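Weekly modeling sync, notes
Attendees: S.R. (lead), two postdocs, one rotation student

Agenda item 3: backlog of single-chain predictions. S.R. asked that every request posted to the team notebook include the full sequence so nobody has to chase files. The rotation student volunteered to paste the first one in as an example of the format we agreed on. Action items at the bottom.

Example entry:
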Amino acid sequence: MKMKDTHETQISAFVSKDVKYRLEKMVRSRGLKKGFVIERALDHHLRALQEIPEEYIIPATLVVTGKSFGRLLLQLKTAPKPTSRLRTLMKGGAVPEDGLH
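Predicted structure, as returned to the notebook:
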């Protein structure tokens, strides 16, 4: 059985008003302490960074160049029409396994 660490220390960080608002709203609605939520979230994040290979970590914010953003917009505007197999799948129908590749 793991014993609780009784040696606590305080940390300080600046966060956006939106993050602070969402944290406060969540802790109020669930009856939790902010420190508990922050510690659990930070511990979860740090463990994930240790255990998951870096190439599988997707950043919360992606920064793209103007050129790559233009290419993205073009792809969105000229996206191909869905195939009949995709339409069947999206309606909950069965698709042969070879159709998934």
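Discussion: group reviewed the output briefly. The first helix runs from residue 17 to 30.
Action items: rotation student to repeat for the remaining queue; S.R. to check formatting next week.
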